[in-house]
Specification:
The protein is of the alpha+beta class and 182 residues long. The protein is built from five helices and five strands. A five-stranded mixed beta sheet has the order 1-2-5-3-4. A hairpin with a 2-residue loop joins strand 1 (58-64) and strand 2. The longest helix is centred in the first third of the chain and has 34 residues, at 2-35. The model has no long low-confidence stretch (mean pLDDT 87).
Length: 182
Amino acid sequence: MSDNRQSLSDLGAALNQQREAAQADSDTRADAYLAGELNEPTQTAPLRAQELDKQGRAYATGRRKDAVARVWLKPGTGKITINGRDQEIYFARPTLRLVINQVFGITEREGQYDVVCTVKGGGLSGQAGAVKHGISQALTKYEPALRTPVKRAGFLTRDSRTVERKKYGRAKARRSFQFSKR
């Protein structure tokens, strides 16, 4: 029993020495960084690798409501093609085009990338959201350094809101049939 207590106290003392040594090391590093001897902090987030296909394009899938967009992104003049049509023709409403170009505005990359995408399912609003989601994912695959600003803006998160299913005994998802007293 006394041997166990002795070994536990030795272990505790060793742990305390390690903690003190680590604290002293971090203090000296912080002092060196503040004095300008170190250029940058030692711990940086590992940068993701660039993911490109054989044609040098970044591919991603974007989803919103029932719409699914397959997006290919490559350097170019800023032309966006959706289902073989120009974005002004496919998305006639300016608000939908604004939604698509939000990603390039946040990252300050307007007119630097060509986008080719195919969209199916859902309505125009859901399709615009799916294209935006796909563009933001493809852009972070092409330029991994842009992941932080795009993620902070919330463009990498898939908006999971969908239409609630219709239930039996109901007119719609929650609406009851009209009540008739007589």
